[in-house]
Specification:
The chain is of the alpha+beta class and 138 residues long. It contains 3 helices and 3 strands; from the N terminus they run ααββαβ.
Length: 138
Amino acid sequence: MTRLHAGSRRDDRGAGLVALPWSVLAYLTFLTLAVQAAVYFYSTSVLTAVGHDATRRAAFGGGSPAAIADAERWLRSSIGPAVDVEKLRWSTTGETVALELTAKPPTVLIDASALIGLRSIERRFEVRRELARFAGSP
């Protein structure tokens, strides 16, 4: 019987010790970026829902300063400490209440948001003011 590979064989023992740590590092890096993106999109969803509800609460209160302060207090308590709200700007016109919201999403392990371009969340909400009318009132 003849050997197929006659001559010297190259020994591959130990080659996995070099490739395995780099593979694990690449996997964990991509996993961290994916988790950071998921946290960003979850934070965006929560801020959008809570911002719209807070604007609606302020509009239902007629857009008064007391209603806006109450809506802002509710917004901050609903978001919680994880999301850093950087800017809240309320404005009222004759018929609408508007809120401009800028926030920084939470980070996971490292601040990977700069790497993937997800640094801040900016939203604008505008809701028509509601005035309570009772039966028989004009």
